Amino acid sequence: MRALSARLPWARGAPWAPRASALAALALGILLALVPAVAPRDITLLNLGFFTFLYVAQGLAWNVLGGYAGYVSFGYAAFFGLGAYTTALLWLAGWPPLATYPVAGIVAAAFSLIVGVPTLRLVGPYFSIATIGVGEAMRVLMLNLDRITGGASGLNLPTAVPSKTWFYTTSLLFAAVAFAVAAWVRGSRVGLGLMALRMDLEAAESLGVRTALFKNVAHSLGAFLVGACGGLYATFLQYVHPDTVFSFTESISLVLIALIGGLGTVWGPVLGAVVFYAVQDYLQTSYPTFHLLVYGVLLILILLFEPKGLAGLAERAWRRMRGAPARLAPAGPSGAEPAAPGRGGAG
Amino acid sequence: MTAALALEHVTKRFGGLLAVSDVSIEVAPGQITGLIGPNGAGKTTLFRVISGGLRPSAGRVFFEGREITGWSPHAVCRLGVCATHQIVRPFPDLTVLENVLVAAAFGSGGRLAPRSPRAEAEEVLEFTGLASRGDAPAAALTLAQRKRLEIARALATRPSVLLLDEALAGLTPTESQQAVALIRRIRDRGVTIVMIEHVMRAVMDLSDRVLVLNYGRLIADGPPRAVTSDPQVIEAYLGRALEEA
Question: In whole angstroms, what separates CA A336 from the centre of its chain?
Fold first, then answer.
């Protein structure tokens, strides 16, 4: 719990924790950026990096609304797909790919507002279910808009693509930007508001938090990043198809990454994405669906034993190594009220 | 002088149930007003209509002469009307200080300047006697401390009007006395207070004026002593005398 205060630098003087975390991220980023220089011909490694970073970026983006604010969306494929198609169409129209990514992000963010303004009024499972509907509806819509999207045959994109090193570095840059955004939000006033509304929407609202606005800001931030990732993915594949870029699997992946890594933590999606993609990449070739079983087991273990995911596990291990007590028990003294009280009745 | 709070013919229906029926009140600034009535009389509903949680079916609500009918709770709060909840609702995973910080950072609507939200939050914790618990997670507080935290959070929004919904319920007599003293000190800071309360002694001690609701209607309004001897009020609480039945 103490770490939480340290996460609010605008409120507290100059805490060491976010700074240490930022330094670690910077060091890791620089190290990873050197990989293409060391192994410029290792296509497998560069591809592995590309996909992992792409998932890191998206997991971090998803976590802003899903983790900080607790709004679990199963519809981010809509943003990914819209981003992918935006880049595809602009690229076909002669734009350089790099210039299309911000536009892809903006299109996705705009769509997130259209979807978010009505659906973010729903709470808990109702919101999640609505997002499944939106995601699937987009996929079917895009399949049928074949004049624009190529429909079931997809769209072939220009074959003149940048090098693997370029993809690796750009993807790493996306992950870095997503990390910076996620870490900044977490420590900012917006982050405090999002955490407050996750714990008690009505109380947050009655203390002056513009909950609807904050939820939509978080949603569109995430959508922007995921949309840009979709664009990068389309460039990499040189081909877009509604069933791939709007797939439900894509949506689920982001939820899994954040859950495995640690909901609402800054490092969680980073760890989650690495594990997620490593498992998938390693197992998919020899056992095409075995990775799903691994995710299932991981999910159950995490929900049972460490709700903060791998990030929570890492924190625990770190404390134990330093000889500090594992964790302060958050439970109150006996006789205290349960943490989540019900609604007040009429007086 | 403009009333701190004014209700004009406020009515709230839930389907066929008339929870609040044609209530008109003006609350003078700086006073403590007690709002009493039997369970289900519509007291909390009335609070929620004022603080923006519920839109009235009819009627209008004014804060310092400005109409706030149907505003969102966050907007009403930032303007200067803050309500505490009957059942306390702390943010359980945030520390006590952070709980108050949320209120100071978001609810004060610029009234803190030049003070920082954090300085304000610390001052409020000091004022409410929670300073020693600042770093504890809110989930670890006792009921009395949670009730205090509820008030502390509301105070950190620098309200002109504070709506207290059963701030004393569930407290031991000693805790209750401390809470009464706290409410008095809040009034001394110039905050207008409207409080729903079932602890009659506290209502009698604190209130400059008492309002009585029964079945959503305002049935009495006046100084505490006058109101408690009103036959209609006695009837609402105790029922009709036998010979009249």
Answer: 36
Q: What phi, psi does B92 have (nearest 5°)? A: -65, -35
B77 closest CB neighbour out of A8, A206, A331? A206
Query: What is the domain partition of chain A in residue ranges?
Result: 18-321
The CATH architecture one would assign to domain A18-321 is Orthogonal Bundle (1.10)
Query: Which phi and psi angles does B36 have, rounded to 5°?
Result: -125, 175
Residue A157 has pLDDT above 80, yes or no: yes
Selection from A45, A50, A93 nearest residue A236 by Cα: A50
Residue to test with chain B: of A190, A207, A263, most B Cβ within 10 A = A207
Tell me whether B234 touches chain A (CB under 8 Å).
no
Cβ neighbours around A34 below 10 Å, total: 10
Q: Assess whether pLDDT exceeds 60 at residue A329.
A: no
What residues in A contact B77, CB-CB < 8 Å?
Answer: 206-208
- Domain residue limits, chain B: 5-244
d(CA A250, CA A193): 28
Q: Which fold has domain B5-244?
A: Rossmann fold (3.40.50)
CA A286 from centre of chain = 28
- Whether the per-residue pLDDT at A327 is higher than 50: the answer is no
pTM of the shown model: 0.87
